[in-house]
Amino acid sequence: MTVNPLEMFKSRAIELVNNALASLDLNVELPLEIPPENMGDYAFPCFMLSKEMKKSPADIAKQLSQEIPEDLTFSRIEARGPYINFYINPEMLVQITIESIMDKREEYGMWPQTDVKINLEHTSANPNGPLHVGRARNPILGDTIARILRKCGHDVITEFYVDDMGKQQVTLTWGVENLTREGEIPEKMDHAMVWYYQEATKQMEENPDVLEQINQIVAKYEEKDEEISARVKENCKKVLSGMTTSLRRLDIHFDNFAWESKYIFNGSVDTVVEDLKNHEFTDYEDSALYLDLEKVGITGQENKLYLTRSDGSSLYTTRDIAYHLDKLANYDLAIDILGEDHKLKAKVVQLAVGLLGHEKEKIEPLFYSFVSLPEGKMSTRKGRVVTLDDLIDESVGRAREEVEKRRPELAQELRRGIAEAVGTGAIRYNIIRVQAEKQIVFKWEEALSFEGNSAPFVQYSHARASSILRKTSVMGEYELKLIKHPSEIQLVKALASFPALIKECGKNMECHPMAGYAFELASLFNQFYRDCPVLQAEEDVMNARLALVTVSRYVMSNVLDTLGLIAPEEM
RNA sequence: GGGCGCGUGGCCUAGCUAGGAUAUGGCGACAGCCUCCUAAGCUGUAUAUCGAGGGUUCGAAUCCCUCCGCGUCCGCCA
Length: 571
Description:
By secondary structure, the chain is of the alpha/beta class. Helix content is 53%, strand content 11%. It binds one RNA strand through helix 6, strand 8, helix 13, helix 14 and helix 17.
């Protein structure tokens, strides 16, 4: 049984065109296209033959189409203007697609296991306070890409790189150890801990003594003081627990946490410095080692990237290089989900890894632009943030109101579950539906939109399909020839294209087409739902349609899973 | 100053990697559809000099050049 139901049709179309070209002694690249609506499923444009044949593209299309024999795979092959259009034989497509999905069920869309081991690093936010909406784009993108790559058959582990070495984390620890928080303390650890960080930062800025104390801890820490490391790590873990709690609500989990300090303490950072210091592209300035960016082709105002301070201690980028070497030692591919502010740093890390004789192509950074508020950039310092927890609570709350209004008859527990699915789903979907490079301006009314191009729209179609199936006890033998209504065929075509889309998204490492597909599929299901009554149909038609509903539900469920959304049975 | 990304109807957005047939869809607006499997749904109407200008091409939203706007980076911070 084929993984991709469309494969046969496409390769057959190519074959037919190739044969026709050969019979006319022509040889060109085949840019098979997908034509606009109502003009078939594949199209072969004849413009490029025009010069060679000294004829109009329309005439060529006509001539060429006469060389193409009738074929079972296509119900129609015809010249139309400068194109030859291929119309897939719907009966055959229905047969292949529905049988394939019935056979694979929740596995449909998944590709055979590869032996590619991927480390996918995402989120990696400094653990000094709760995640805000701006940062949330990272885990949502990362988790979705991970899901897509797994369905492509790869072995993916997700990883959070914990920055436990920076001054920020020492500041937090100083705060926890020296300050007493009055009043009510939030229960969630990230919200509880951020106060110490903010207050300590304030005191550090106002009081030179505090700054001195913190600097001393930082200095000792960098000399590999195990005891300080343990104290800092403990506080990091507390904040992390809060972050992961929030992310768990969005069904985002980490397989592993990589601690930055590890690379200092195990000596791998020293090795990196040792290996780079004799390189022709590096040099010293006041005994601080730097990489000469001009020599590696990066220009800017400042061309030196420092790898150590003049006291020999390491810098963030150096540790990041050590970290990536570690990844390459254990994985075939290291994917980093990064904000666009990290572009240069990522490039430098890649370059350095290359200079050290490793395959820098195995590091693949994926960048996204920031989420800002209508009044400007999100800033914890200026108190201009929407935390992820606020957003989730608000979204689930709004979803709850909607369920109460729409489905008051449902059990309370069920309504609660639906609200959670819809509320959290809407957030994920809203972030994922636009391409990562676009800036997003966060607007509540858009984030909380439950209509149109949104998660609930897709979830609703799944619920409708589930509802139909729930109402039938038995599905008898079905005759797929009875699937022939245009709305049914359109739906089947969408179902058939799912595996190819998974692969495409994996190859390009992008998720927004998956959201677009989810919407398209749900929309086509809704049109089918409108045009083709299932339970009221004649028994044989009903059985065939039940089969279509069954496979549609599998695919919708698989798509929702790919996007990390819950597929509700009712809503 | 230099690098990278983005710019598509009032708002949001697809298409750009591999140039092709009337530029995708959503929100909002307006007009309709619940004696019929869930109306978080469906149908219809209006709204686009694809940032601007040039170039390549039979053909440009898509490729090239210039310019403009927005974001982002160019720390012995992380």
